[in-house]
Amino acid sequence: MSDLRRITSMIQNYSVSCPEKPDKRYLFQIKVYWLSIVTLLSVLVTFVFCVLWTILFKLEDATSTHCGYRVKNYLPTISTAVGNYPVQRFIWTLVIIAHSPIRLIVVGIYYQYYTSIIKPSLHWCAVLLRFLSTVEVCSLVVLSIFTSSDYYSIHEKSFVTFICASELNMVISSILLKKGRITKTVMTKLEVRSLKYKIYFTVFNMTSFAIAGYCFLRHNAYCESGVYTFFALFEYLVVLSNMTFHLTAVWDLAGVSLVIDDNLNLTYR
After folding, report:
1. Which of 73, 83, 124, 125 has a 20 to 30 A CA-CA distance from 133?
2. Distance between CA 198 and CA 200 in Å, rounded?
3. Stretch 233-262: mean pLDDT
4. In a domain? residue 36
5. Do the domain assignments include residue 142?
6. Is 17 inside any structural domain?
7. How many Å apart are CA 222 and CA 230, to the nearest integer?
8. Phi and psi angles of residue 261, each rounded to the nearest 5 degrees, phi first
9. By residue range, what is the domain housing residue 234?
């Protein structure tokens, strides 16, 4: 009888000390940190290439406006640089379409991030931000496919939609992260840095857009030399500040990974 008890005890001890079942293995895993950097860098490099290529080989044609060649300009607009010439249009459209699904995945991750740190009464703001971010990405795809030279009406409406969605997205998210957090949550150093740059780039973006709009209207009204160049320059700054605003995701989502499990399910943790 004592031997039976001893054997039973050994079995119980063994079962307790046995290692647990290994964690679920993932077929693919990448940090959102690197995903955001690679995605936005691809767009930035493509943007710089299109502008420089147009300046080097198509400057005179790209900077001509209704004012004619009598008004000297030195920079092409973004719409012209990425949409009026076959090489630039092909590369830009390809990169924008390719990066869009990743942007939409990050939008979904951000929604979970917002709902985990903001007050429950403000969760509707997280839904609104998700909608605005989705509209921003989709309108960017549409205005890239339908260029201003071939489909001006569609391009114009898509551009207006993109600007409205992006500006609202930047303003609302900055205010929400500053004023709408749950009282008990404490911001990490990375989140403090992210919010600081979000506010900075939001103000910079809106200021640049206002100046670009003024230069555009002034050029159309008076055909002054150089004004169109300033319009193009501040248009570049609008796009660049929008990119850097979205790059703050590397701080907000620093600890999040995108994974594909054994069943080919795409999740994040």
Report:
1. 83
2. 5
3. 89
4. yes
5. yes
6. no
7. 14
8. -85, -175
9. 27-268
